[in-house]
Design a protein that fits this description.
The structure holds 2 protein chains of 2 kinds.
Chain A: H1 6-41, H2 46-61, H3 64-77, H4 85-110, H5 114-122, H6 127-157, H7 169-180, H8 183-214
Chain B: E1 13-22, E2 25-35, E3 40-45, H1 51-58, E4 66-71, E5 74-75, H2 83-89, E6 90-93, H3 105-116, H4 121-134, H5 150-162, E7 168-172, H6 180-195, E8 199-203, H7 207-213, E9 216-221, E10 224-229, H8 240-249
Parallel strand pairs in B: 3-8, 3-9, 6-7, 7-8
Antiparallel strand pairs in B: 1-2, 1-4, 4-5, 9-10
Helix pairs in contact in B: 3-4, 3-5, 4-5, 5-6
Classes of the chains: A mainly alpha, B alpha/beta.
The complex binds adenosine-5'-triphosphate and magnesium ion (MG).
Pfam family, one (chain A): BPD_transp_1
InterPro entries (chain A): AA_ABC_transptr_permease_3TM (IPR010065), ArtM/GltK/GlnP/TcyL/YhdX-like (IPR043429), MetI-like (IPR000515), MetI-like_sf (IPR035906)
Subcellular location (chain A): Cell inner membrane; Cell membrane
């Protein structure tokens, strides 16, 4: 039995790339879907608003692990067997991220003072123009720090993708451990990889927040 | 309802028996008054008497429960009211300026003309310069609102409204947040507008200004028009309530 060495670190580094890739899919997919849900959440139509609330509640109330199972096995039940793990994991994380990003962004949109809506309305702007030209640019400034902060959650939560057979950082750690059984060394190394991914993000998020507090513009 | 209010003698604004409640709180209790073309109407009264609410009803920011309001030919009480068409005719300036903080002064002014009237960037910029010179702030075009004093911000807010070429301007205590010197510069702008023939309705606590500039004074008390007349009414109040109000106010 060989012991923990460079080859394992290489394997972990390669798996870390998959973690990054999966995080990006979740962030882009979840961002697009979440943005649409956030807009629906502040829509003028009660029905659309209610639908968005229900969606957010369901997503936030379901453990990510169950979401992943539901999508993985749900698709199989629907007759498409052998879904690639990356698709199942990507879809699960996209849905998960959309529920949380929608709620973060709704908060930012609603924290723009009502008087800004009113001023824009009194200038005869359409609802869409009010949203895109007046409200969203201001909400965006407030949204950057918590959004980057949430990226950290996404990165860490990709570790659950192993349940649908996706080999990312954590799963790679498990695989190595199955063959050489040095759990402490292996998982400390895995943790260091996660730290290397997440630390820059949380530092960036904090500096964005500080900047925002200095200049409200 | 498309009544023809275009004859020069018919009023620009006409409220008739307007009732408005917030839940159980009755705020407007049968308010009626007219404002003619080129007139400057000052609404005065104690805090809570319904002045702001009346102004907001005129601009359809609040819905009324009873009565009729005609503004520049728009029937405000009509559920089918075209709000955007109304807002093209009516400008409003608030006590808290409500400039868009992420846009420069010039961009604040250019936004509505480009979005709503489909002016080109160049045309809108010329327009912005023109209205800014009207309020004496050409030099501030590229600044952000937070870089301006309160008085300057309020003049920008007026300029932003003027850029839509409204037929009627509404002002809700636009100087209440300003110290006396800055108040003066904003009132000067409003006086110029009045002299140029703009139809205006202003809610104000500035009695001297109302006396000097207003062609009509509406004194509101407990949600009703208690007394109305010309600026001279302030020197010769008919009701004890107005007498008491002026006594406190001056
Ligand atoms: N959106 C609202 N919801 C509930 N009550 C309101 C609302 N807006 C105003 N009111 C109430 O209506 C009454 C009249 O308010 P309004 O703002 O019209 O008074 P005002 O004459 O403008 O007073 P001020 O001089 O203090 O500005 C007040 O009692 C106020 O609390
Ligand atoms: Mg008021």
């Amino acid at each position: 039995m060989q012991s923990f060495g460079l080859i394992h670190v290489e394997f972990l580094a390669w798996a870390a790339l998959w973690t990054v890739g999966l995080s990006l899919i979740a962030f882009v997919g979840g961002g697009l879907l979440g943005f649409a849900v956030a807009l629906a959440r502040v829509s003028g139509s009660l029905a659309v608003r209610a639908a968005a609330i229900v969606y957010i509640q369901i997503v936030q109330g379901t453990p990510l692990l169950i979401l992943l199972f539901l999508i993985y096995f749900g698709v199989a039940v629907a007759g498409f067997s052998g879904v690639p793990a990356i698709l199942a994991a990507g879809a699960g994380l996209t849905v998960y991220s959309s529920g949380f990003l929608a709620e973060i962004w709704r908060g930012c949109i609603q924290s723009v003072p009502k008087t800004q809506w009113e001023a824009a309305e009194c200038l005869a702007l359409t609802r869409w123009q009010r949203m895109t030209r007046v409200i969203l640019p201001q909400a965006l400034r407030m949204a950057t720090a918590p959004t980057v902060g949430f990226l950290v959650q996404i990165v860490k939560n990709t570790s659950l993708a192993s349940v649908v057979g996706f080999v990312e950082l954590s799963q790679a750690g498990k695989l190595i451990n199955n063959s050489i059984f040095e759990p402490f060394t292996i998982f400390v190394t895995v943790a260091l990889f996660y730290f290397a991914l997440c630390f820059p993000l949380s530092t960036w998020s904090r500096s964005l927040e500080r900047k925002l507090n200095v200049s409200r513009r | 309802m498309s009544s023809t209010l275009s004859s020069p003698l018919s009023p620009v604004v006409s409220l008739s028996n307007v009732h408005k409640s917030f839940g159980a709180l009755k705020v407007l209790d049968g308010v009626s008054f007219d404002v003619g073309v080129g007139e400057v109407a000052a609404i005065i009264g104690q805090s809570g008497s319904g002045k702001s609410t009346a102004l907001r009803c005129i601009n359809a920011l609040e819905t009324i429960q009873q009565g009729t309001i005609q503004v520049c030919g728009h029937a405000i009480h009509d559920p089918a009211l075209d709000r955007r068409a109304l807002r093209r005719d009516v400008g409003i300036v608030f006590q808290s300026y409500n400039l868009f903080p992420h846009l420069t002064v010039e961009q604040n002014i250019m936004l509505a003309p480009t979005c709503v009237k489909a002016l080109s960037k160049g045309e809108a910029r010329d327009l912005a310069r023109e209205v800014l010179s009207h309020v004496g702030l050409e030099a501030k075009a590229d600044q952000y609102p937070e870089q301006l004093s309160g008085g300057q911000q309020q003049r920008v807010a007026i300029a932003r409204s003027l850029a839509m070429r409204p037929k009627l301007m509404l002002f809700d205590e636009v100087t209440s947040a300003l110290d006396p010197q800055l108040t003066g510069e904003v009132l000067k702008v409003m006086e110029t507008l009045a002299r140029e023939g703009m139809t205006m309705i202003l809610v104000t606590h500035e009695m001297a200004f109302a006396r000097k500039v207003a062609s009509k004074v509406v004194y509101m008390h407990q949600g009703r028009v208690w007394e109305t007349g010309t600026g001279a009414m302030l020197d010769d109040p008919q009701t004890p309530e107005l007498r008491a109000f002026i006594g406190n106010g001056l």
